[in-house]
Amino acid sequence: MIAKSSFRTLTKLSQSTRLTKAESSVLADCRDNIDDTVDRLQQSAKQLARLNGTRTVEERFEWDSIKTWMSAAITDEYTCTDGIGEMKVRVSLQKKIQSSIANVAWMNSNALALVNKISY
Question: Which stretches make up the Pectinesterase inhibitor domain (predicted)?
Answer without folding.
Answer: 2-114
